[in-house]
Amino acid sequence: MSAYGSLLKNLINFSGSKLSTVAEEVGYDVSYISKWCNKAKLPASKMAPNINRALANHFSHEILKHEDLSTFSKIFSVEATPETLNSIIYTLLKENYKESSREAANDLNNSEAYKTKILSLANDIYEFFNHELPSTILSYNEPLEVLCTLDICRFININNVDLPIYPTPTHEVNVKMALSSKKLFSDSPYYLKQLYYFINSHSYLTFDFYDNTLMESLNTIIIKDHMAILCAVDQYNRILTATVVTDPEKVNQIYIRTLPSFRTADLLIHATESEEFYQHGYRTDFYSRDNFQIFLARGFEFLLPVECWESITRTALERDNDEFMAHLVAQLQITWEEIFEKNSMDFFVLKSSLMKYMEDGEIIFADVVYNMTPEERKLHIQKVLEITKKNPNIHFYVIDDEYLPNVQHLLHTSVFNNRKKLFLKNPERYHTDIGPHLYSVLSDQLIKEVNDFLDNLKSHPYCFSYDAEGIQKFAEKYGSLIYRMIDLSAFKTNK
Length: 495
Fold this sequence. Notes:
By secondary structure, the chain is of the alpha+beta class. It has 20 helices and 17 strands.
């Protein structure tokens, strides 16, 4: 009800007037009077002065006739006399009409701003999903909650490598996304690789991936408080039409109806902050097992020499002011010394990452970003050689990523697997402070798929294997060259 309608209804009730009588006074059908009172409708602006004058004449006459002037003054918060009553009622009607007209104009503008958009042309759909939607998400400049019931396996493909590059957002974007376990667990590792590339290409977004059992036919994307996109998809998984809703009230109605489809029981991959990861003892339990597969996309933080531990601990305390992390580093030193003595470990490292480590010495140890000094890097190499001599169950697999030119930029998330538990580490988070620190994989089937994938990776021509003996021979052949590279990096840094 508008302010004008509320006032008019109150005047009718107070004066004891019938709608039919009021309608006769102003010369309009009784249905108009009812709409003005109850449905936020207003008289036409050209006719409003005459209508308000007629209404003021009628109501003032009725109030004076029934001797209700003093009661009127109290209820309507005015000081009226028989001489001023008509003018006061007219002024009240006029001012409330103006206020309601402004509200109506704002409502009209809002309805235009929130006008639903329907995309049906292929070019328009492509532009919206590849350019307009990502830019819009970045433009909100506030934390966002997103639901996506579209199965990511339908849309991830080799084109991941051709995705437009957008600036890193300054706000957290948390996405609950559907994932088809049927496709992911198929015989081909295609979807598994593409999912990994997708996570890498969107490292600044925080994803929780859910099995899509309850949402296969929903085909919606909802940005809470901002936008809902309802898609019609054909049998080839192409989007035929997309309806874009921006009215916040409608968007949130769709959000509330869709959210229950994302059940905790269906969660496959969960984005996790470091605090949550450590507090529940996940890392400690992870390293209490055997038979590790570890893919490191940046640096090499394992098999560290004793001389490095104190420096990393001091960095956590003094630079990061993180007493808990300093304590954790000390704990890991003890744990890892025992693990590396006898446990089986497969380390997968990128050739480009190793080269970069030789140059800048950067590792991310737990949550501590630390740059090994040139001397520490040399001691690190010696420690690796010393431990592998004692433990022949440690194997290195160097992946020459020059053989993978189309996806080199999508290989920066590390994988930690002990064949029973698996988590991913997002190094980008430690440099941008946006996106998740870690992903924990909750699906046993998915862990098995990753086990098999990494085992099969060993047979690829771009994956070079080094056992204990092989690493010793490599060091004998190239050790002096590697040390010269480290010394050269120190010279460049000092310069």
